[in-house]
User: Fold these one by one.
Assistant:
Number 1:
Amino acid sequence: RLWIQVRLMKQFLKRISKMSLLQQMTLIIFTFVAVFVFFFVFYLRGNISDFVVNQCMSILQRSQETVVENIRHPGGGYSELTYDSGVIHFVYEDGRLSKYYGAGLYDGLVGQKVDELAGSHSEGWIESTFEVKGERYYYRMQTVDENTVVVSIMDRQYGETIESSLLSSVANNTTIIMLLLFILLMLWVSSVIAPLQTIQNYIEKVRQGDETAQLKLDREDEIGHLANALVEMREEIRSQEATKEEMIHNISHDLKTPIAVIKSYAESIKDGIYPYDTLDKSVDVIIENADRLERKVQSLLFLNRLDFVMEQEKDTDKQTDMVALVKSVTTSMKMIHQEIEVEKYLEKGTSFRGDEESWRVVVSNLLDNALRYASGRVVIDVHEDTLTVFNDGEQITQDQMNKLFKPFEKGDKGKFGLGLSICSKVCSTYGYVIEAENMPNGVMFIISPKPEEKKGRKG
């Protein structure tokens, strides 16, 4: 049964979620009104009725105490101002009922009922109601002495007057408050729906390729922040699209060159002509350009599958000996830019979390980047979960620094604009962060654990 209720609730919420925001707000308003009406009719009205009964009994008590005092102390001074005009008092003495005070007529049935009640009363006091011919009366009885009982009654007209007055006052005040709340709520709904529609129109124009579409909302709340984020996202997409177009153009150019060389050299050799002096030298040119083409294709393929690979590796418990890895990479790249001095400061036993091949790509990209930009010196330092690669080349501008690790962003001497982006993704997956910092005499790239990773390892 509980499962059925949960299912029905989910279906109800699903239907509401398909409504427009205006329809949802309208539903909320009418639900609130219905709850209030239910509260007013069944709860507040009952409480007001109880209040009226208590109020009537309080009046009966106060007025009856005056009668009792006058009976107990005759000659003490009598004034009609001490009585309530809506109350009739009876005195039951020695088995006989008589009217003591009060304006208004009452038929014999009321007198009989009062006589019956007084005759059955023994001592103390009692408060209650009785009905005669469908008319309701409030009464209070109190014993004066062993032979005398005072009975005070009040018909329901007085109580109905009070109840009607209270209900009318509450209803009027509540209606005014509800009307004001409804107006305020509708104004608020309008202030929310209008900018959302503006945002929707802006998104539709952008989707249709309208370059003149603009979005300006003078708001400091979440809707304003959303609008600003959409504008910034559009600008970012524009920038990335422009970068990708340039990147595709550069890739096409870079791929065409080695392909053209390979094709022309192969055709010449086929015709018995050696473009580069001898057959061996000409074949070496073909091999060199094929290797160049292979490296570029591998970079593109690696980036394409990087997200999938990193998703599989994010929970890995593999460890990589960073000292051995750096030695291996520097050894394999020592023939590149032999004029650059490479210094290594490696702390034994330093290991990084993650797969060795992924870290090899990171170290290779950083070292290759450093060798391309260095003037004459590169320094690699490995210690305490930290890897730094320094080169004494030109410093990075602030504009370049802001988009350094974004894909397809290429520096002055860059190749594809993918290397540092790949480094950033690998580091982030394994719980590290990579940063670039301008030094007084060059640029340093720093890989270190994320702050939360540092706390976890210290703990």
Number 2:
Amino acid sequence: AITTAADGTCTGKITNYPHRNLFLNGALNISQRGDSYSSANAYTADQWYMFVTGSTTTRETSSPPDGFTYYLRCPSTSNSIIFSQQIELDAQGKVGKYKNKTVTVSWYARTESSNTMYVDAAFKNASGGGDYTAVRSGTSDIKTLTSSWARYSSTFTISATPHANNKCFSVMIRTPSSGSGSTGTLEATGFQCEFGDIATDFEHVSNGEEYIRCSRHLVQYNNLGSSDDQPALFTGVAGDNNDLFGQIFLPNAMRAHPTLSYSSVNHFAYTRVFGGGSGVLGGTLYISYDTSFPHQVMAMRANASPNPGWSQGDVYLIRMIGGNNGYMRFSAEI
């Protein structure tokens, strides 16, 4: 499939050039939130937002398709399973590189029922919607799944223009909303979205590179439950008798200034760096203020309760307490 021109140049369809997959984490190798996701309408493995009605979605390794390690298992007993990724636009409201492009979306799937799947696409403000600008309705190109792993693909052309508030190109690989093919348990992995009219070889990315790309949107520090696993998070200087001020250096500049969430303040402890003294934090953790850094250095404040009587100027280490599945999460997801 190589075409030559009179001036000596040529064009061709190449199936393995790098960085052609517009999706992040298409093989589901990165999952900072763990392997079990009980909430509908929420993020699961990094970058994958799930609209699921039914039981808990899990990330499995027992029987993936050839060439893959992980897949998502969705034991839905009701209607509609949607695997959705919000691909960041280069600038809000700008169509940019997507203008009039032909796009092919491919994925691997199998079903324990009689599921069918198709691909919808839209420009949106966020994973949940907002100023929804339809790009493609895939109900005319429905794929019938079987009990064996197979690769499916769907091709369409982007002719819509984003709304001024749209931040992402959202691709939704889904079962129908109701009726035939909508219900039952299915499994999927190997998601790829690329420019062109064919599904090329799946692009495998190293875990290190994939994590850095995902960390633009999510950074999570986990205590995996071992009593010996006590991650040190940041050092802080006491500003008064119950407030520490410090910084966390994230692995990557995030997409936007992140929001902070964590499991419980009782999952964090403080230890005086010089002179001894420690205890359970028991108060509140904050991103203290926006910094002038490019969303990579977070100014942190730790407020302890009950008042530990810190001395101004003393230095303390904030760490997770072992054995409790604690986490600290910085999220800039769309």
